[in-house]
Structures are given as structure tokens and as C-alpha cells.
Write a structure and sequence with these properties.
Blueprint (H helix, E strand, L loop, with lengths): L1 E6 L3 E6 L9 H16 L5 E6 L22 H10 L4 E5 L2 E3 L1 H8 L2 E5 L3 E3 L13 H9 L1 H10 L2 E3 H7 L4 E3 L3 H12 L20 E5 L3 H6 L12 H11 L4 E5 L3 H22 L8 E4 L10 E4 L5 H14 L5 E4 L6 H6 L7 E6 L8 E6 L5 H13 L3 E6 L6 H18 L8 H8 L1 H10 L15 E2 L2 E2 L3 H7 L12 E2 L9 E2 L1 H14 L8 H21 L6 H11 L9 H8 L1 H14 L10 H8 L20
Parallel strand pairs: 2-3, 3-4, 4-6, 5-7, 6-9, 10-11, 10-13, 11-12, 13-14, 14-15, 16-17
Antiparallel strand pairs: 1-2, 7-8, 15-16, 18-19, 20-21
Helix pairs in contact: 2-3, 4-5, 9-10, 14-19, 19-22
The chain binds ligand LFKQWZQV.
């Protein structure tokens, strides 16, 4: 199903032989895998050429096998391995490279096409999507809009158009295979890194990881020993489960034997329930629990998930630097702290990266991979690849307070609380239910740390203003009453019990609001649904535009993915940035200008320069915004 031969003494020529169009049957995939293994392990081979017999490169998945169950090696790991290999691979495309065949060509480091060749991703015409990397690699190669057009129409393109788009490196009138062999010989000395379309850098393979956390309760009780006796908290447990269920050995670090036993039982219970649901056996043998940091000395990677406190995290990373091997990667699970400041206290800042999981970590799909300025490409690639292995939707983001998701949340929540202050407490769901679920004390602590509230701040001097801008102290007042949300049974709403989910309006909150408004002479007025939506969502999107300008997210689609998978943004709206484009950027700008004029002390309502620029350029569609953004984070 594939012929393997050595030509020109050093080029492995792999010829697919599955007539009539060399489709990727299970036997062909198996033969490619075997041939690649030979080529990569044979020291005589310096480069590889893949071509197809009888003037056809590859017609894609073998549609004759569609009716039966998948047999043989799966295509995606096979393609990833070709791309990741250390010897240059050249595709010699004659006839057709369609569907999986095109995806095979995309993982080759170079593509030579005969002038009569045709390429395309016709999956959509079969009612499916390209699932072997085409939807990721093609946009990276030729940009989102050109790739989307090809993916959504299934159109075949000529070799000439492929050359113009940057899909192929050379078009030839001669025998493409012979040209490719010569090309491969010249490619031997050249670096491969930039030729890998999906990954600029090869990730490390992670076989063992440690997960460590310190529960909030332990913070005060063990202050002297911080970093030496961490314990596994809610996030740590979820992360440990995610790792173990994909076959990675996990050392979970606890602070003391009693907690060790509780943690062990909880993780084992979670893994057993998960395995039962999936009809597999639980991988309990991969788990080890310890109270000694010394046990972490040989792990490939550590995911720190201690309580969200910078001083504590720094202590932990200093301890880890002493204990772990110099090559061990350090990941911090923080929801907004400075990853670079943590990297700075270690002996290996280039091996430090943020992995922002969302709670519960074994359920929520989203993972923000936070790239610090000193995180190496390999470190980022490894975190991205580990996230993929864990089944996460991963988005690489830059390092700034709150990263993307939580940074955008601030203006959104601010608007909701200002609306609460001004008018009707009319949200049945939304910000307030979400805040109750997340825990109101989380934001309260952040505001205290940033000097917005707390015992050092005089709330009346001046009232309802902090750091030169409008400030609503109502959330602080709720927290001061010990109402931290669902976990305490009381928050913005009241619940039937601690941890309950059945939210009911609480008359005490209504009284608190009325007292507050009368103290400050606020006349409540009805606020239209339109104003609520516009002020909250346009402020959210406006921060998204700023994030794009700052190079903290690489593209608007990344922001939308974060909001869809991490923050429950309604799927049918497509995410905050897509929603803004659907509403019309001109309208978003006009409404933000209107609201900013009415609330000049709320800087988040001031339209961002990027939004203005896009409107001035005729409001291009989302996939074209990137062309108008100057700052791009080098890693994203
Ligand atoms: C993880 C999954 C990975 C990827 C998904 C996919 O790849 S989906 C499949 C994508 N590929 C296609 O949709 C290609 C479909 N085929 C065509 O468009 C045309 O057949 C093609 C290749 C352009 C050739 O057209 P032409 O007009 O020259 O010939 P004809 O259509 O009569 O086909 C000739 C014979 O080839 C057989 N054939 C074509 N494609 C496949 C295929 N993918 N698998 C198996 N067999 C294929 C076709 O049935 C004809 O056979 P015959 O016995 O002569 O009737």
C-alpha cells in the first residue's frame, strides 16, 4: 500500500499505492507509519519524499471504508509525527491532493506541485469538516479568510492558485517526484522549525507531572512552612484527574497526612466515576500522593495550583527550583497574577508558563496558556500540547492582569454593578449569579490588593470614587456581611443551603440597596434591557479590542473561544467579538461614545482606538481585523 525505496543514496521515497487515487485506507496509513519509522531511524536517510502512484498524490480518506469502524492507525497522530520529524519531508503532488490527502501534504515541510495538480478540502461536500488538521494548518499557512473560503466551499484549486496562496513552494511542468527529490536534497541543511505549519516548536513529551495546591484554610495554619508542605485543593484535584485520565503519572502533593488521605479519596473517587462513565478502567496506578516535595525531584513538569497569593506562589517556586531537576517545566495555575514575576524567582524563567484552568478543572474545557515574555517557545508548545492531550480547548494569551478572560470580565462586572446602583435589580441570571457561583470573596480580595477597598481606604473620601474613577462599593458591602455566594449559601441571592444552586432573590439585598441609594441620594430609575445589554456587552467587547491592541490575544477568534468555553457566553452569539461585529462596529462605537459621554468617570466605556480604526476602515469582518492590529505578541 506504500512502496519504500532509497533514491540518490540518501532520500527515502515513499510512494502511496492504493489505486485508483491512493486514498488513505487503513493499510495505507499503516504503510506510511512504517515507512516513516524506517526513514527517520535510518542514518543513511537525510530527507523524505512522499508521492502517489499513477499520477495521483492522494484522494483523501478511503471512502470505501466509511461504512465500517475505524481500523488501523488513526490519521491525526500519524500526520503530527510526520510534521514533528527531524528530517525534511517533501510532498510531490501530481493529480489530486484532496481532503486527508491535502492534510497529508500540509504536514510535509515542503510541497512541490505539478502544474496540472488540483488541491482542496472537499469534506464539506460530504457533510463533514476536515478533521485531520486542515482547519488548523491551512489558516496558519494562508490566513483565516482564504482558508475559510476553501474549507467552507470545498473548492478544488489549481497548482498555480496554490502557489499564489502560499500553499505550495514550487510548481513544475516536469515529473513532480523527481523535482521533489532534488528539492529534498537541498533542504537537508535548512532548519525545519519554521516549516512546521502547526507548531513553530516541537513540544516536549510529558510522562510525569506533579500537581500541588494549598487550600485557603492551610494558608494561615502553616504560614511558616509555606512551599514546604503544600496541599491539594479543588483545582489541584481536578488537574490531577485530567492528567491521570490521559495516561500521565501524577504526584499529587498534600500538606499533611490527614489532608493526604482526604485528597487521595476524592481524586480516586473522581477518577473512578469518570472511568465508569467512559466505560474504561480507572488509571489509579498512575497516582502517587505525597507530603514531601523531595518526591518531585524527577518529574517532567509541575503544575502549581496553590491559593491565589503572589507571595505564597513565589515561595513555592523558590522551593521547587531547589528540589526539581533543572529541565523541569514549571506551570502556574493562576487566574490573573503576573506569570513573569513568578518566573523571576525561579532558576529557569524560560521554563515557566501559565496554565489557567477553569473550575472544575476536570470538567471545564477552556485552558488559557499564558506566555510570559521569558517563556521559551518550547515551554509554550509543551503547555499547549499537554492541554491538547488533556482534551482542553487551548488559547495562547499574553501576560497581563487577568490575561484575556478575567481582564474583560472587570468592565463587564463593573457595568452590572453600576446598573444595580442606578436602577432596577432586574437580572434573573447573568453577572450576579455567575459571581455567586465563582465566589464573591475572589474579586473582593483582588480589589483589596489593588487598594480599591479595605481598612486603609476611606470609603467616603470621596464617596463612590476610587483612583480617580467611579467605584461601586456594594459588592464590598455584600462581602463584609460574609455573603460570598453559593458556597456560603448567601451572596447576591439566597440559596437553600451552603453550596446550594437554587437561587432566590433575597429581601436583605433589596433592603441593602434601598438604604445605600437613600444614603447617597440616588433616585432609582427603570433601565431598559437594551441599555443593560449594551453597557455590559459593549464594555466587554471594548476591553477585547484593547486586548487585541496590546497583543495579549492574537486574534478576535481566540477571545471568542475563551468566552464560549470558559465563561458560558451564549454559543449562538459566537462570542463577544463576533457579537460586536454582528451588531455592527459602527453602532457599538456610537453607543459606547454615548454611554461614555453620560459616564465620563468610567474609562472602560471610552471606545478603544482599535474599534475607532476598524470603523474608519469600513468595519471589516472579524477575520480581517488582524490586518489592522500593529502589536502582535511574539509567542501568539
Ligand atoms: C480523518 C478523515 C480525513 C479526511 C477526510 C477525507 O479525506 S474525506 C474524502 C475527501 N476526498 C474526496 O472527497 C475525493 C472524492 N473524489 C473525487 O472528487 C474524485 O473522484 C476525484 C478524486 C477528483 C477523481 O475524479 P475523476 O472524475 O477523475 O474520477 P472518478 O470520480 O470517476 O473517480 C475515479 C475512481 O476513484 C474512486 N475514488 C475517488 N476518490 C476516492 C476516495 N477518496 N476513496 C476511494 N475511492 C475514491 C472513485 O470511486 C472511482 O472509482 P471507480 O471504481 O472507478 O468508480
Amino acid at each position: 500500500m506504500a512502496r519504500y525505496e532509497l533514491v540518490k543514496r540518501s532520500v527515502a521515497l515513499i510512494t502511496l499505492t492504493n489505486p485508483p487515487v491512493n486514498a488513505l485506507s487503513s493499510a495505507v496509513r499503516h504503510a506510511i507509519a512504517k515507512s516513516m519509522e524506517c526513514a527517520l531511524s535510518d542514518p543513511k536517510v537525510t530527507a523524505v519524499v512522499i508521492c502517489g502512484e499513477n499520477g495521483s498524490f492522494c484522494g483523501g480518506a478511503d471512502i470505501r471504508e466509511f461504512a465500517g469502524p475505524l481500523k488501523g492507525p488513526p490519521l491525526v497522530p500519524l500526520l503530527d509525527a510526520i510534521e514533528a520529524g527531524e528530517k525534511p519531508v517533501v510532498a510531490a503532488i501530481e493529480g489530486v491532493a484532496l481532503g486527508g490527502g491535502f492534510e497529508l501534504a500540509l504536514v510535509c515541510h515542503y510541497r512541490i506541485a505539478h502544474s496540472k495538480a488540483r488541491l482542496g478540502l472537499p469534506e464539506v461536500t460530504l457533510g463533514i469538516l476536515p478533521a485531520a488538521g486542515g482547519t488548523q494548518r491551512l489558516p496558519r499557512l494562508i490566513g483565516i479568510s482564504a482558508a475559510l473560503e476553501l474549507i467552507t466551499t470545498g473548492r478544488h484549486i489549481s497548482a498555480q492558485e496554490a502557489l499564489k496562496l502560499g500553499i505550495v513552494d514550487q510548481v513544475t511542468e516536469q515529473n513532480a517526484c523527481e523535482v521533489a527529490v532534488e528539492f529534498a536534497l537541498r533542504a537537508v541543511a535548512k532548519p525545519l522549525l519554521s516549516r512546521r505549519v502547526s507548531m513553530p516548536c516541537k513540544p516536549r513529551e510529558i510522562r510525569s507531572a506533579a500537581v500541588m495546591g494549598i487550600k485557603r484554610e492551610c494558608l494561615h495554619g502553616h504560614e511558616q512552612d509555606l512551599g514546604m508542605v503544600p496541599s491539594l485543593g479543588t483545582m489541584g484535584r481536578g488537574i490531577a484527574v485530567c492528567l491521570a485520565r490521559v495516561g500521565i503519572s501524577v504526584i499529587a502533593v498534600e500538606s499533611e497526612n490527614k489532608l493526604l488521605e482526604t485528597g487521595r479519596q476524592m481524586v480516586i473517587g473522581m477518577l473512578e466515576r469518570d472511568a465508569k462513565r467512559r466505560g474504561v478502567s480507572a488509571s489509579l496506578n498512575l497516582l502517587k500522593f505525597t507530603i514531601s516535595l523531595q518526591d518531585l525531584k524527577d518529574v517532567n513538569l509541575v503544575i502549581e495550583a496553590v491559593f491565589e497569593d503572589m507571595a505564597l506562589k513565589k515561595r513555592v517556586f523558590q522551593e521547587l527550583s531547589k528540589v526539581c531537576r533543572p529541565a523541569t517545566l514549571f506551570c502556574t495555575n493562576t487566574s490573573g497574577l503576573d506569570v513573569d514575576a513568578l518566573a523571576g524567582v525561579t532558576d529557569r524563567p524560560h521554563l515557566v508558563v501559565g496554565m489557567h484552568f477553569f473550575s472544575p478543572a476536570h470538567v471545564m474545557k477552556l485552558l488559557e496558556v499564558v506566555c510570559g515574555p521569558r517563556s521559551s517557545s518550547e515551554t509554550i508548545a509543551t503547555a499547549m500540547s499537554l492541554g491538547k492531550r488533556m482534551g482542553k480547548v487551548r488559547v495562547a494569551v499574553g501576560n497581563c492582569p487577568g490575561f484575556v478572560g478575567n481582564r474583560m470580565l472587570k468592565p463587564y462586572i463593573d457595568q452590572a454593578t453600576f446598573l444595580l446602583e442606578e436602577g432596577d435589580f432586574g437580572f434573573a441570571m447573568g453577572v450576579f449569579r455567575m459571581s455567586d457561583l465563582a465566589g464573591l470573596d475572589v474579586g473582593w480580595r483582588v480589589w483589596k490588593e489593588s487598594g480599591l477597598t479595605g481598612s486603609d481606604v476611606d470609603p467616603e473620601n470621596p464617596p463612590r470614587r476610587r483612583q480617580g474613577r467611579r467605584y461601586c462599593p456594594i459588592p464590598d458591602m455584600v462581602c463584609e456581611k460574609g455573603r460570598f455566594g453559593q458556597k456560603t449559601g448567601r451572596g447576591w441571592y439566597m440559596y437553600d443551603k451552603r453550596g446550594g444552586t437554587n437561587a432566590k432573590p433575597d429581601p436583605l439585598i433589596q433592603i441593602l440597596l434601598e438604604t445605600y441609594r437613600s444614603k447617597y441620594g440616588i433616585q432609582p430609575h427603570n433601565i431598559s434591557n437594551q441599555e443593560i445589554i449594551e453597557r455590559c456587552l459593549f464594555a466587554l467587547a471594548n476591553e477585547g479590542f484593547r486586548i487585541l491592541e496590546d497583543g495579549i490575544a492574537a486574534r478576535p477568534e481566540d477571545i471568542d473561544v475563551i468566552y464560549l468555553f470558559g465563561y458560558g457566553f451564549p454559543r449562538h452569539r459566537g462570542g463577544p467579538m463576533f457579537y460586536a461585529s454582528m451588531v455592527g462596529l459602527e453602532r457599538v462605537l456610537e453607543r459606547l461614545e454615548h454611554y461614555h459621554q453620560a459616564h465620563p468617570d468610567v474609562p472602560h466605556l471610552k471606545p478603544s482606538p482599535l474599534l475607532k480604526k476598524l470603523v474608519a476602515c469600513g468595519s471589516p469582518p472579524v477575520q480581517k481585523w488582524r490586518e489592522h492590529i500593529k502589536t502582535m505578541h511574539s509567542h501568539l
